[in-house]
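Private note to self, pasted from the team thread so I don't lose it. Backbone tokens:
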């Protein structure tokens, strides 16, 4: 808490002067460590594809005979609702406009090819490779939690090689848990840093109140009150209710845009995008969408890869808790189906709609993006919809509830990680959770005062970098767990015996026939 308090102070005092340092750090990371981000994502994706469709995919995350706690749809809805935050409402609409100016695969800006490719890179960055990074912590935590019945309070508790006494093991456990908190802070802080300016801009368009720092501070105050009530209510009464509401608001907004927009054009465009995504998947995985070094698409992918890494521990713990009774294959395929499908739907509808507004000449959203920023694009886009006041209000409410869910859940997880041993169903103390809510908001305020999307990108990339090594350790943990699984060993012993029995029956049957 002291460390992040000091970082927040530097951001608040430094203001826009910190932006240059952030730009330099982002350039350094994308230039010299790009290969490491790509390596872990490629290895991670291949590992889980092999795991899901191997014999180990049949391993049940629970005792024999355990039924799944949730149906496939219920489980998928919760995974999707928690795995995304309000950022997708903004980025799915503005990413394609940025790629239109910096198109992938050699297309000329604003050309027909640029429009065709504009939604491909964004959907890749929210696609299968991204969601499989959540599977890393999910399976690593779910196996000891449900198969062995171990209480998992921290991510380091899911690594058997670190269990037991010893100063060196204790130190490594502490380092891993610290890096997890560091990553969560970077991811959550960046989300709030992006979304508060958007909500302020849309509220300004809705009410006519000037979009000043005072409006943003008011929003921070309202968020604090909402978070305080949620944290006080606890996990089931507070966070659970928010989680149930925010998915309905977001999907409702998406359906309205799809129906009032050029519906068939959006659906046909998504079919073309998916075809190109499959065609260029290998090139995108190697971050070769742009020729040369440090192209726009390359920097965007580095930002997203850092962001997904930062969220990995939070998502892993949540999905692991709701996956009891499911097989490893069901969890992996479910994340690819519900998680990826949900994210691509936002890009198909909101991204497709902003591209249509630009191409048809209805609005010059690219000019608005370049001169006024992402928040102004959202406000302008929403005002093209029928009942614009209602839609602006619905959008603001969706963003607010998204933020409340994400931060309340993350504060709960971080408080758990930083508590002493919790027994049974014991929850972190309220003061601990509230202290982290305050740290989240102060840290995010510093990001807002520094300003600029590059600052958000730099913080996400920095926060995700140390978790690369944590992800590597988790992959080793999963491999050791599944290859020594008692049920799999038992099955391996039974199979040859059954085979010998069948051969013996065939011989007896054959002799009898003769």
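Design output:
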């Amino acid at each position: 808490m002291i460390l992040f308090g000091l970082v927040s102070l530097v951001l608040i005092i430094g203001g826009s002067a910190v932006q240059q340092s952030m730009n330099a750090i982002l350039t350094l990371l994308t230039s010299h460590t790009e290969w490491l981000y790509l390596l872990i994502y490629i290895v991670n994706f291949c590992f889980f594809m092999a795991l899901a469709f191997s014999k180990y995919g049949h391993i049940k995350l629970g005792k024999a005979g355990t039924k799944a706690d949730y149906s496939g749809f219920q489980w998928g809805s919760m995974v999707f609702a928690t795995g995304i935050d309000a950022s997708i409402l903004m980025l799915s609409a503005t990413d394609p406009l940025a790629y239109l100016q910096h198109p992938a695969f050699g297309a000329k800006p604003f050309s027909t090819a640029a429009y065709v490719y504009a939604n491909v890179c964004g959907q890749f960055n929210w696609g299968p490779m991204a969601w499989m990074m959540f599977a890393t912590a999910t399976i690593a935590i779910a196996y000891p939690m449900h198969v062995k019945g171990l209480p998992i309070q921290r991510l380091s508790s899911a690594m058997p090689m670190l269990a037991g006494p010893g100063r060196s093991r204790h130190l490594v456990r502490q380092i891993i848990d610290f890096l997890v908190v560091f990553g969560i802070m970077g991811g959550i802080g960046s989300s709030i840093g992006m979304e508060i300016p958007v909500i302020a801009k849309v509220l300004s368009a809705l009410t006519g109140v000037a979009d000043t720092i005072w409006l943003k501070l008011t929003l921070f105050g309202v968020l604090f009150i909402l978070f305080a009530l949620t944290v006080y209510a606890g996990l089931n009464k507070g966070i659970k209710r928010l989680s149930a509401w925010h998915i309905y608001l977001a999907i409702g907004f998406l359906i309205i845009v799809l129906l009032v927009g050029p519906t068939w054009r959006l659906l046909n465009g998504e079919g073309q995008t998916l075809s190109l995504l499959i065609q260029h998947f290998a090139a995108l995985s190697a971050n070769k969408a742009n020729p040369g070094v440090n192209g726009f698409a390359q920097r965007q992918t580095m930002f997203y890869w850092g962001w997904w890494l930062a969220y990995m521990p939070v998502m892993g713990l949540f999905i692991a808790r709701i996956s009891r009774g499911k097989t490893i294959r069901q969890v992996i395929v479910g994340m690819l189906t519900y998680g990826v499908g949900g994210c691509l739907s936002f890009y198909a509808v909101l991204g497709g709609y902003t591209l249509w507004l630009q191409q048809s000449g209805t609005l010059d959203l690219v000019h608005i993006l370049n001169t006024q920023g992402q928040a102004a694009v959202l406000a302008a886009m929403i005002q093209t919809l029928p009942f614009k006041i209602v839609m602006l209000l619905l959008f603001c409410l969706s963003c607010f509830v998204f933020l409340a869910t994400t931060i309340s859940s993350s504060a709960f997880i971080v408080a758990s990680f930083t508590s002493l041993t919790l027994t049974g169903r014991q929850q972190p103390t309220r003061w601990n959770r509230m202290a982290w809510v305050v740290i989240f908001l102060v840290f995010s305020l510093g990001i807002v005062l520094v300003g600029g999307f590059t600052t958000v990108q730099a913080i996400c990339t920095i926060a995700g970098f140390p978790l690369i090594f944590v992800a590597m350790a988790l992959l080793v943990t999963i491999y050791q767990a599944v290859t020594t699984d008692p049920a799999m060993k038992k099955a391996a012993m039974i199979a040859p015996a059954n085979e010998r029995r069948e051969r013996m029956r065939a011989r007896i049957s054959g002799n009898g026939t003769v």
